[in-house]
Amino acid sequence: MGKLCKDQLVGKLVALFKETDQSHIDDAVTQAKGQLTDEAKQAKRNDLEKLFDSQIETLKDRGVPEQIVEILQNQKGAVVKKASEMAIGDGNIPFLPVIPRSFRSPYDLMAMVRNGSKVGYTYLNPTKISDVVDAPSEPYYIYDVEDGNSTRGKSPENAEKILKQQKRSPLTAAEVTALTTHTDVLSRHYVWATGSRFESADKVPHVFLDSGGRPKLVWNYVDRSNGRWGSASCSSR
Fold it and tell me: Which residue of 41, 101, 104, 202 has the fewest C-beta atoms within 10 A of its own C-beta?
């Protein structure tokens, strides 16, 4: 049965209310609205739980050690609860699991990033990567993730200013590898890890596809811009 148009709905309600005690109408409407709201909340929660479970399965498939998977898996209740109570931006990812560099090196993290059958890699020295935003040192989740499309063509330097005004945080190198592991963002554009630096304050890591189509973590200067690159961000960690 198709959805009722407004006039049809009004007609059915009028017919129904004629047979109903007026004192019960307001209570019934309030109760019906509450029931619909509860059903919508439960549906949202179910979708979030499915997303959580699919991300955990991806980590297992990519060879993440059982102990790390368990740390992230144990956060399910808190993660789903927080995301279900948030206003997630249109098109944004509700949450993503992040394995920090203190638990796995960039070599391991990039090996989890795929473009079809092509496996990601990096030659960056892990000891020379640092973060310019506060991020947990143990496996954690980031929320309301925007994949960088909104800042495409902006240099990391300019994107930082925009994100600060929006009260959003640029993603770190570890967080960008999480984004590129769990989504196909690289098929649309490449991603600056504007929340991190490499060697010095004027060099920013980023993930792109090399000439052979392999995902690669490299660096470029903070004031460089390119229409194919954007700075991904999150609203909280």
Answer: 41
- Collapsing DSSP to helix, strand or coil, 169 comes out as strand
CA distances from 106 to 36, 124, 145, 218, 224 (A): 46, 8, 21, 11, 23
Three-state DSSP at 218 gives strand
3-state helix, strand, coil in the chain (%, to 5): 45, 20, 35
- Contact at 8 Å (CB) between 145 and 156? no
> Cβ distance 189 to 180 under 8 Å?
no
Total number of domains constituting the chain:
1
pLDDT > 50? residue 1: no
CA atoms of 197 and 203, how far apart (whole Å): 6
The structure tokens listed for 101 are 């560099």
SS3 (DSSP) at 163: helix
How buried is residue 177: exposed, middle or buried, by Cβ count under 10 Å (0-12/13-18/19+)? buried
The 10s digit of each residue's pLDDT in 57-85 is: 999 999 999 999 999 999 999 999 999 99
Residue 2 lies in a domain: no
Average pLDDT over residues 128-133: 98
Task: Say how many residues make up the chain.
Answer: 237
